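The protein record filed here.
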Amino acid sequence: MSEISALFDWHDGSLRLLEDCELFATRLEVADSFLVRDGRALAVDVHRSRFIESAMARGHHDEHELDTFYRAALQLIPREADWFPRLEVSSHDGSFRLLFRLRSAPELRQSVVVATHSGTDPRTEPTVKGPDLEAMLRLRQEAQRSGAREGVILDTGLVSEGSTTSLMWWRGDRLMVPPAYLPRIPSVTARAILTIAAAIGTQVAEEEATPDELAGCEVWAVNALHGIRVVSAWVDGPDLDASGHHADRWRSRLTALARPLD
């Protein structure tokens, strides 16, 4: 499928298609994206809740409008092919604007090469998806110049999160996650994985870990687009288990949780 992208503006209770000439400078306050495959998506209700809660925290206090906007946007997503839509709350001169981007999904991948971000932490709002999006994309571009596709942010030397991913790793049959006190985006995909783990009795533990301490581990970079990607290499970092021993089974479990948008 050729790439498709369309931008819609929320105006008087409905979404209208925008032309490029209608755009003006705004500050991105909140963003939410998820993969839709033939009309099915993972945890859309959780995405909607995170979006509304984040928007309310950023100052948009009309919960009903936010919910109505989100539901209207879902209706514009075709029920065939792969899509990666994005819903946004932007601000301009003290007022808020709601935007919906209907985008065809890019190529999906099952593995990724990462590199440690060596500069200062670019995040200003580490627990809200949106305000730091451009900074995180620049961080990813920096990683790409070193031969990776994703950058990894360290917090006091500890693995925190990736530029567009949450990080998890395996020690034997235990699934490990960064400690909760490290501020990061509350990943819907990571939450779904932890829900599956609780349901099937997989042990989960928090772990403070430097990159070197992940040597020999199967490391996952997870997000709403790709689901679970195995970290196949870490540039100038630890040697990892890139076999994906756990990944195939867990991808199937995630796929089984996808539900129709309707």
